[in-house]
Structures are given as structure tokens and as C-alpha cells.
Amino acid sequence: MQAKRNFSAKREAIYETLASTKSHPTAEWVYDQLKPSIPDLSLGTVYRNLTVFKELGLTKCVGVVNGKERFDADMSQHPHFVCTRCLSVIDVPIKRNFVDCNIYDYVAKECGVTVEDHNIVFYGFCNGCREKQDF
Amino acid sequence: MQAKRNFSAKREAIYETLASTKSHPTAEWVYDQLKPSIPDLSLGTVYRNLTVFKELGLTKCVGVVNGKERFDADMSQHPHFVCTRCLSVIDVPIKRNFVDCNIYDYVAKECGVTVEDHNIVFYGFCNGCREKQDF
DNA sequence: AATATTTTGATAACAATTACTGATATGTTA
DNA sequence: TAACATATCAGTAATTGTTATCAAAATATT
Q1: What's the whole-number mean pLDDT along residues B61-82?
Q2: DSSP structural state of residue A36
Q3: What per-residue confidence (pLDDT) applies to B3?
Q4: What is the C-alpha to C-alpha distance for residues A113 and B86, in angstroms, rounded to an integer?
């Protein structure tokens, strides 16, 4: 369990909303979730705090889907699947990492760079979308 | 060698610009490259044709870096490295694919989806950026 | 040549995100 | 407690990458 942070009520609410979903939401989705219970919440505040969380290493961006940044509070290294039909983003559960330090070293050597992180995204369509449509 | 396509002069020029660079440029970079030799080129035309190429399967988007879409005419499956300092995008050369059909099957089964494509991106800093700055 | 189709430049529209500003809340110090 | 400094915020304006519109120009077709 993480030590209590002295976040403002709104910052805490934004973080909790992000931490309690696996939907990898957009900033606007977080805003829409909280607006009913926090009527004076501003969309700018959501954006501002998502940036704060990124700086604090509490969240990361899992990519830009259809022009919208998608956020994740699950900082464990795991790939994602993006349904190119409904644009949902799904965690790919892994037993152990697809990508290990050897690959970082390989990329470092091949490209003449220092590797700090990586991101794996699969694309396709989810079963919900297959049922709805014929391909 | 690819058969001659009956592309318009501008479409051809845009494609050639993209095909002859490994910089994974933005739409605007392509525009800036061509503007001197094609003074009446419009930025909209570049965007329009980049979309056409995507539909024709001639190019793909390698991701969105700092809010800008980065394009690649190299359709072979290969990972990319993004320097988070200078935002350059570098091809990672591979002998054989990191990700094979077995992994597609694995993701399909674990997530209940159909996998059509994937994208691997490494992040870090390139040697140029290391030399310029102390970290 | 007459007509249809494609492509284009210029511009406006759009949408996601960021910047700004003054107000409010919170923390600190004495 | 009061006085001050700092952090956070709402509301709005500005910015920016991208897309849509539309009439003109180029090209293809008959």
C-alpha cells in the first residue's frame, strides 16, 4: 500500500479514477466520470494533474489512439491491445516480460542509444466488434 | 523495383520524399522539404496524400511523437527507437522478428481478440543527445 | 472537343491540449 | 492568531496538428 500523499481532494480524485479503471481512459473520460460528484471540476485541472502524475512517475501514457492520449496508472511493464474498431485499449497479461535487458542492450548497441523504456502495442479487433460486424 | 504508378507529380514527389528518408518525418517536414522545388504545394495536399498512401498500404504511421504523427514508407515489420530528448525516430534493425505468430496467438487467446498488427517502440536518448548534455 | 473524374490550393473548421489569469485554498512562520 | 507565501484551481482564451470544404485546375475518357 502506498503512503498517504498530501494530494488535494481533486488531485486525489483524479488519480483514484485513473487507478480504479482498466480502460486506459482519455482526459475527457476522467473528467466526465468526476464531473457529477465534483461539479466545479475543470477539464484543465484534469489535464494539469495528469501531467503532474506523469512527472511524479505515477502514470504513463500508453499511446495516442485516434488523436487522444490514453493514460494508465498501472506502471508495471505490460503490452496493450488496441481494437482499431471500437478503440478500446486492453492490457495484455504476461507471465514474464516479452522484452528483457538483453534486448535493451541489443537496441543500445545496434542504434547507438541508451534505452530507458519500451512500449508494445498489438492492433486488431476485439470479440465484441467481431460479433457486431462481419469482416 | 515497383511498377510505375500513375501518381500525380505531387503525389509522386510526396511519396518519394517519404521513401527516401529514414527520419520518419512529420507531414510538415515533408512539406518543408518539397516547398522550395514545388512552390505551389499546399500542406493540405501533403496530409491528403499521406492518408492516400496509408489506405493503399504504402506507408504506415509509426506513432505520435510530441503530438505529431510520424510516417514511414518502410513497410517491413521493425521496431523503432524514439529519443525522448531530440524526438528523433530511429529504425531498430532486426535479423528476425521479435514478435512471431505464436505471440499473436497468445494475445488472441489471453485477450479474446484477433491480432492483425503490432508496434514496438523503445524510448531513451540517442548518443548525440548524451554528448550535448549531462544526465 | 465535350464531359466526367481526380487532384489541388487556399482557407476555414475542428478538436485535443496548453497557457493564462485572477481567485481561492492551503501551508508556514512568527 | 495574523500576515505572508505557495499551491491549486475554474474559466476562458490561445495554440496547434489535422481535417473538411469548395471552387479551380489538371487529367482522363468518350
Answers
A1: 97
A2: T
A3: 44
A4: 12
Domains, in order of start, for chain A? 1-75 (1.10.10.10), 76-135 (3.30.1490.190)
- Mean pLDDT along residues A77-87: 96
Chain A residues with a Cβ under 8 Å from any Cβ in chain B: 63-64, 79, 81, 83-84, 90, 92-93, 98-99, 103-104, 107-108, 110-127, 130
Q: What is the 3-state secondary structure (H, E, C) of chain B?
A: CCCCCCCCHHHHHHHHHHHCCCCCCCHHHHHHHHCCCCCCCCHHHHHHHHHHHHHHCCCEEEEEECCEEEEECCCCCCCEEEECCCCCEEECCCCCCCCCHHHHHHHHHHHCEEEEEEEEEEEEEEHHHHHHCCC
Residue type, A131: E
Check whether A27 has a pLDDT greater than 90: yes
Which stretches of chain B sit within 8 Å of chain A by CB? 63-64, 67, 79, 81, 83-84, 90, 92-93, 98-99, 103-104, 107-108, 110-127, 130
- pTM (predicted TM-score): 0.91
The string of pLDDT tens digits covering residues A45-59 is: 999 999 999 999 999
